[in-house]
Amino acid sequence: MRSRVLLLMAVGLILSSLLLMVPQETAKAQLVAGYSGFPTLIEDDAKFLCIVGTEEQTFANVPIMMWIGVESTEDSFEIGIFDGDTGLSDAGIEDWLNGNWDASPLATYTQMEYELYADPLKTGTGTQILQGNCGRAQCRWRGNDDAMPNNDWYNITVDTSAAAQAPSGNYFYRLVVTPVASATRDYSCFKLRTSGQASLLPGIFTVMAGPVSPADFPLVFPDFPNLTPRTYDGIWQFYAWIGEGQGMLEFWDGDFDFGDYLDNDLDTNDPNTSGIPSWAGGGAVAEGAKGQGDPQDDNSNAYFRVSPNTVYSIIDPNWNTYLNDNPSGNLEWERFVLSTQASASPDVLVDSLPAGYYWWYIEGMDGHNLNAIRTEWEMFPPDDDEPPEEPPLPREEEEVEFVPEPGALLLLGGGLAALASYAGMSVRGRRR
User: Fold this and answer.
1) CB contact at 8 A, 213 and 109
2) Which parts of the chain sit beneath pLDDT 50?
3) Distance CA 358, CA 373 (A)
4) What's the confidence (pLDDT) of residue 136?
5) What residue ranges do the domains of the chain occupy?
6) Rounded-to-integer distance, Cα 167 and Cα 151, Å
7) What is the CA radius of gyration of the chain?
8) Which tens digits make up the pLDDT trace of 171-216?
9) Which are the contacts of 431, defined by CB distance < 8 A and separation ≥ 6?
10) What is the distance between the alpha carbons of residues 81 and 148, in angstroms, rounded to a whole number?
11) Which of 189, 215, 342, 368 has the fewest CB atoms nearer than 10 Å to its CB?
12) Cα separation of 432 and 430, whole Å?
């Protein structure tokens, strides 16, 4: 018995040593397996969804809305909110100087509210918060009041609800993040994940990279004050799901602050965008040649600067790549148009726009600069830097068309099936 115990101890020591030798990246991959979320699942890459106040010269108080799809066979699912607090330190007190990924320079803390709605048809509408199924009477949480941890995950288990069940049998929910009051000087940044299928609703969402607070600098720069190594790489990836072939596609970018601090590469007038879009909301200005960004893209502060200037590509399902090398300037919206028709005045005239996932690949985005994105389609996160493996979970049941077998009688109307059976004939259904 003693020899068996010693053997087990030896095996345990060997396994422990092997685990200590596993690279950090591998451990993270194991940690996030089974989740999807925005903008990434990696805790220390400094990439966040972010809501900013009205006095920060950007697009303020833009809500973040994420759909969660859960397969019909599941009884429950998980929601994770990373750094869901606003201005709290590790000790859980309001102290943004010692907290992470938030900023409240006026020492006023506008916490975020996280509300879960049943949205079985994915309409993006409906005002009834999910009742129960989440450990409380109403599925509503507040970052500070519920003591969401600084720089860590707050996990919620939700039982599936008949109120969220679609005709297909799958379940769909909408998680909405808003400030509890109109934020003024606050920056509140967070990540969202789920064990289900995550997608951002069509419309506007805002993202930002750290450093945000003073305490972020040693997290983004592990050998701070040295500039290298750096955990943030300036790259952002999203996938727009377009279920049918199109004649024209528009991708809108807002307040990218294109225009570097050296005046080498400045924002110019976009020939096929004008004015302020009707959906833009407060803070936007008319499109035009804005010159240098504010703050400058390719910032004069090396701790925020990621070169080159921000550019992005749209890559279609056939791997054709379309580059936008002069996106929006300060506080403006610009559209990037792909079309099969020259009459649409597109940025790129293309042969076709097939159905599938369109990869929005952004590079060179500076730290501490809020950027806005808008599309008319669901946006999905990458799956290990690859397109999602599957299309969105279906909301509707598959349609069935009846096809006669040889010698069978094709009858119209399900009520006549019994008659066919009585006559010794069969009616067979074929799924599309």
Assistant:
1) no
2) 1-31, 409-432
3) 14
4) 95
5) 24-380, 400-431
6) 39
7) 25
8) 999 999 999 988 777 899 999 999 999 999 999 999 999 999 999 9
9) 398, 400
10) 8
11) 342
12) 6
Q: Which residues contact 223 (CB under 8 A, 6 or more apart)?
A: 229
User: β-strand 47-52 against 187-194: which pairing, if any?
Assistant: antiparallel
* Cβ neighbours of residue 144 closer than 8 Å, sequence gap 6 or more: 85, 86, 87, 88, 94, 109, 111
Question: Do residues 371 and 47 make contact, with C-beta atoms less than 8 angstroms apart?
Answer: no
CA distance 223 to 132: 46
Residue 38 in tokens: 């925005």
Task: Kindly report the length of the chain.
Answer: 432
